[in-house]
Amino acid sequence: MKELEVKQEEIERLNLRSEEVREIMGYIPSRIVRYGISVILGVVVFIFTGTCFFRYPDTISGRFVIHSSNPAITLRSKVNGRIELLNVRDGDRVARNDLLAVVSGSGDFRHILRLKAELCASDSIPCQYTDTLKLGEVQSYYTAYGQALSAYRDYMKIDYMGTRIRLTKEQLEERKEQLKMYWKTEELNQKSLTIEKSTYSRQEAIYEKGGISLAELEQGQSRLVLAEAAYNNACMATSQAQLGAAQAEQELLEMKIQRQQEICRLKDALKVAAENLNAAIREWESNYCMISSIDGIVSLAGVWKLHQNVIAGQDIVSVVPEKRNEILARLYLPVQGAGKLKEGNRMNLIFADYPQEEYGVFCWRLEKLSLLPDSVYTSTFYLPDTLRTNYGKILPFHQNMTGMVVVITEDLSFFDRVINPLRKLWKH
Predict the structure, then answer these.
(1) Which among 87, 93, 68 has a CA at the least distance from the CA of 297?
(2) Is the predicted pLDDT of residue 318 greater than 80, yes or no?
(3) pLDDT of residue 404 exceeding 90
(4) Lowest CB count within 10 Å: 219, 238, 341, 365, which one?
């Protein structure tokens, strides 16, 4: 019995302690509550303050290409064919207007190039015409030129109008000599008429005084009439001779004008035919010839041997300037978000040839953008001669360097980035 009582007392004591423990465990002291709330509030305030002051950049990415202000040129084939002429090797120095290669086309390229040389070397008459040349698509223009050349030379050789002009000149000279004789005859007849008039006047005075007979007076009058008739005939002959000379001069002038007009017409036709021929040769050159437009060094792109087949659009040869001018950069930035771009924005150029982790980036300022976008906005500006990155490394320049550009438009806090969409929703 005593053992049972002891066990019961222990159980009661344990129950009492359990209730006390439960009370202690269920009660949170006020000091802990205050400390906990303060810590949580401090963390919240710290985070909120951090969102207001912590800022990171807003960027717009695009691409860029760098080359010199005298960039390299790449010549591409415009037609399918094969290489008929390859005048250069990789690394050769060439001058402007040098012929580098010829792609096969219609006709013999040697004949066309020879014809071009003859046309360039001629002054007045471009060249001789021959029907043995194989010119392909240029042939019809060369035939038209030959016809114009033949017409001009035949006219100048026959020169029918020139012969008529010479004959008319001779006739005019003869008529001028006759006119001189008529003038002399007229002058003599005029003097004779003057004498006869004076003689007849004296005879009339003598007749009135009875010094001569009527028959003598009538003889004097007859001589006067004959002198007047002779003078009138001389004047008429002189007038006719003058009229004939004037007509001959008019006819000579008209023939000269007609001849000159015909020569000009034939020359113009020949000139037009020659220009059309030159245009056809230039078109042929544009389609089949690779001609350097700059001085530089050759870099063969996709061609390495004669008679190699090529396709339209394939790179044939490039010419790199031996001496570069200023370094020119061209940016291509998307239209999306371009309104935030401003002149003077910081930007980083990340070169594709040089990893950013190892070489860093080239820092610069954005310059003026194009006024009108063509699917993208562009900006062109000059760079310094030395491309030094933010890592202090100097990047060697070569033509057509490419990469990605990152333009920093503005620095926004995290708070602004969160609140801006809410502002937009609030306005709506």
Answers:
(1) 93
(2) yes
(3) yes
(4) 365
Q: What is the DSSP letter of 138?
A: G
The model's pLDDT over 131-169, given as tens digits with 9 standing for 90+, comes to: 677 888 888 888 888 888 888 888 888 777 777 777 777
Kindly indicate the confidence band of residue 305, based on its pLDDT and cuts at 50, 70 and 90: confident
Is residue 216 a part of any domain in this protein? yes
| Two tokens, residue 22 | 């439960």
Specify if 45 maps to a domain: no
For the ranges 31-40, 42-51, 233-242, 346-355, which has the lowest average pLDDT?
A: 42-51
Q: How many angstroms separate the Cα of 411 from the Cα of each of 57, 333, 336, 351?
A: 4, 19, 18, 24
Q: What is the CA radius of gyration of the chain?
A: 55
- Hey, how many other C-beta atoms are within 10 angstroms of the C-beta on 395? 18
Show the tokens assigned to 403: 């990469």
Token pair, residue 252, equals 């000579």
Percent share of the chain, pLDDT over 90: 4
Query: Does 348 map to a domain?
Result: yes
| Closest by CA position to 293, among listed 68, 100, 82 | 100
Distances (CA, A) of 355 to 202, 330, 395: 134, 20, 11
Distance between CA atoms of residues 425 and 419, nearest Å: 10
CB 323 within 8 A of CB 128: no
Does the pLDDT at position 422 exceed 70? no
- Count of domains observed in the chain: 3
Token pair of 227 as six digits: 């002198």
For residue 254, the domain's CATH number is 1.10.287
Main-chain dihedrals φ then ψ at residue 260, nearest 5 degrees: -65, -40
Q: Is 91 exposed, middle or buried (0-12, 13-18, 19+ CB in 10 A)?
A: exposed
Maximum separation of any 2 CA atoms in the chain, in Å: 229
- pLDDT at res. 336: 83
Task: Give the distance from CA 38 to its chain's centroid.
Answer: 76
